[in-house]
Design goal:
By secondary structure, the protein is of the alpha+beta class. The chain is built from 6 helices and 7 strands; from the N terminus they run H-H-E-H-E-E-H-E-E-H-H-E-E. The strands form 2 sheets. It has a 5-stranded mixed sheet. Strand 4 and strand 5 form a beta hairpin. It starts with a helix and ends with a strand. The site of adenosine-5'-diphosphate has 22 residues, from helix 4 and helix 6.
Length: 225
């Protein structure tokens, strides 16, 4: 079983590499670097580009899912500085945020080091921040905050499209995507929040959100102390 998992995961990595290679070839065509294209040819190529992006997103999420399953079994605890961990994660989003002119604020908290599983926190925050950026308009703001209480809570707030009330109950189900999200972003798998919920629960915490359509969403999760 372990060997099969290794084969599946290395095949998925190779598949991802091939698809990312396709991305740059499509981009060369679309940018006109390989000669002029008719409007019709461009339309077809755009569709191919998008399908390829969706395939990259699916393979990436499947790899994250498999990694998350391993983490759930391993339970690797470390003493960490939560502020530092979050700063490191936020750094990865700087280029995308800059491109979309979105400001990311971080409200730190003076905390002693905590013993936790940083790899899980990293996957959860990557998913929440990726969503906040994808479902927000340019020139808006995203705020990440650490709060203390009985348990430590981390929140990610955006000023994006929000989640329609009638679809809110399904948001953590695997493969579920709300209608407004599908309209705004063709690419998406509906796996990120499902994986995040599994990881938060394996840390002994809870995940939830508050959201208003066309106004924004705030996702919260707690860490077990
Ligand atoms: P994906 O973003 O790939 O569709 P997720 O599992 O991460 O998958 O999210 C599931 C759905 O939850 C999204 O399709 C979207 O409908 C909704 N959602 C998640 N985060 C946000 C957000 N910050 N703003 C608006 N909708 C969101």
């Amino acid at each position: 079983m372990k060997e099969e998992k290794g084969i599946i995961s290395s095949s998925a990595h190779s598949l991802r590499t091939l698809l990312v290679g396709n991305r740059w070839t499509f981009q060369l065509f679309l940018d006109g670097d390989l000669g002029p294209l008719s409007t019709e040819q461009k339309e077809y190529l755009k569709k191919l580009f998008e399908n390829n992006e969706q395939a990259i997103s699916l393979v990436s999420d499947l790899l994250t899912w498999s990694h998350a399953e391993d983490l759930k079994v391993k339970k690797e605890k470390e003493e960490i500085d939560l502020n530092e961990l979050i700063e490191k994660i936020l750094k990865q989003f700087e280029p995308v945020a800059k491109k979309k002119e979105i400001k990311i604020n971080f409200e730190k908290l003076d905390l002693p080091k905590i013993k936790t599983e940083p790899k899980k926190i990293e996957i959860i925050l990557l998913n929440l921040l990726d969503n906040a950026l994808r479902y927000s308009p340019p020139k808006s703001q995203i705020t990440v905050k650490i709060m203390a209480g009985e348990k430590i809570t981390i929140s990610v707030a955006d000023q994006g499209i929000g989640i329609p009330v009638k679809e809110q109950a399904k948001i953590f189900e695997k493969f579920f995507r709300a209608e407004n999200a599908k309209k705004k972003e063709n690419v998406g798998t509906g796996l990120g929040l499902y994986i995040s919920k599994e990881l938060v629960e394996s840390l002994g915490g809870k995940i939830w959100f508050e959201s208003k359509e066309n106004a924004g969403s705030t996702f919260y999760f707690t860490l077990a102390k």
